[in-house]
Amino acid sequence: MGSVEDRAKIIAKYSSLSKAIARGALPQFQDMTVAEAIVLGLYNQKVTKYVAVLGHGSTQIAEVLRVYEKYGLVKTYNVRHETAAAHAVTALKMRTGETAAVLTSIGPGALQAFAGSLTAAANGIGVYHIYGDETTQDEGHNMQQIPKSEQGLFLRLFGVMGTAYALYDPYSIFTALRRGAAQTGKKGFSGPFFLLAPMNVQPAIIKDCNLLEFAGEYEGMELACAAAQVFNKAALLISGAKQITIKIGNGAKGCGKEIIELANLIDAAVVSGPSSAGIVPYAEPRYMTVGGSKGSLCGNYAMNEADLVILIGARSVCQWDCSGTAWRNARHIINFNTETIDACHYNRSVAVVGNAKPNLQKLIETLKKKRMKRSKSASAWFMTIKTKKLEWEEFKKKRYDCAPLADIVWKMKVLTQPVAIKTVCDFADSIGAVKYFDAGDVQANGFQIVEDKMEGETYTDTGASYMGFAQSALLSGALACESRYAFAFCGDGSFMMNPQILIDGREHGVKGCIVVFDNRRMAAISGLQNAQYLMDYKTNDSVVVDYAAMAESVKGVKGIFGGTTVRQLEKALREAYSHEGLSLIHVPVYFGEHELAGMGVFGDWNVGNWCERVQKEHHRLGL
After folding, report:
1. Which residue, 131, 224, 463, 544, is the most exposed by fewest CB within 10 angstroms?
2. Phi and psi at residue 464, in whole multiples of 5°?
């Protein structure tokens, strides 16, 4: 019936499983291992890239991948940490829409990948996670299983984060992969699919495996709301409103044209979430930049003052809407979302369930039919938000013009984070590079600073705010086999969560630069502690690290000191960009109480000793 090598060779020749069968080169029914069925079934879904940390729980799948890679059907990228692997496949899906798989062993490796899957789950990104699992015959404790005398514990655990399926029976592979295709391929808010492969099932033979039973790539469709009364009700609310704000999340991607048209039609402000920059270009007059607990002056003003809110593609997490307190004057909310529970998140809502683009088009059509054109370029609302954006520009300029400040830890004058981040952003934009922002203070300052003209210029994990995401995401460029340069914006704390990229990036040919903004602390938490309790605690250390020297210790990686002035940092950026491969720039930055040292905070959220006040306000508003 043929070997793994025979099948791989034939499929490579015809570049398709179905074509090879249709032309009689490959019998439809074949005996094969479950491990090969996993790889072949995923190939049929166009999942051909694996980011792996292999172990004793994945040797059988690894052997199949070795043969399939020999014939160019798949590509495996070996890395040094499972969490980094999870971030890399998540970033690949974010950027390109391509679904890839994480492959790990059983036990600690699987749990580390599982921890990293929080980013995919929290941001609605469909990716595969394939883990080894304990044997099914229960002959006794398996090494690295959860040490309890119960069955299916990993299945129960992983099912909490997304959709999980355990291959206890070899012939269940077809159902497992069909569900995986739907979970990872659906439009809207998706998530990780966990495929558990017990070690004794992987080599088990599927007799007369029907190769045409494998599911193909899931083709998600744009789903529109069919209820005309929903759009009529939304139009009626719009006609009676005076100050309208549109707030967008990642579910609004691809809808920039419709959002701008709607905003002009109904005289609305547009505010983005921290991860949805570029959907509406920064230069659009009605665009008030980011809003939320770390939002801009103008973005938060537009949220606070709106009497009608139109939400597009967002889950309204705590910092996104200041734990529900940002809508201080909202009487009603029109909520576009693919998920019913998120579309009904607030009281006094009109839920528009389905994909944003067709539903926005239907709302615009309804408004035009009813001749409800409200747009007035000189309306009081438009003039007010225009003034607020000018105030924000002046606010930013003061911070960008700030000279280096004396830092008590560095014992010298160093750049502030806003100045350093702005300098790197400007350079990245000038060469068309991708920008990845890590969690923490760098992220919070960063999404207030970026001025993207289009989607795909900036990515950040605001669903989980996972430290170590940005530098791990650089690997996605190598996975995508593209030459576009990328920058990872990291704090010193975030960089040390996943420094393996120095090795993995060199191994797999990453073209990009890690910029470590080093204030010798977790500044976001230090700042929060100071704001809440007037004292920071255990969020800094006394250890001096030469990150440039660390990078230089990996042959082929360029380590550069970024200096203490804008001119020195610009020189370092040019040097990094001229290097063929991966580089790292170490930039010391200021931490302290100087008013120009950060981008400021214009919103509340439910954290620490603010909780009682914020919750009280939330219940007063009754949303």
Report:
1. 544
2. -115, -15
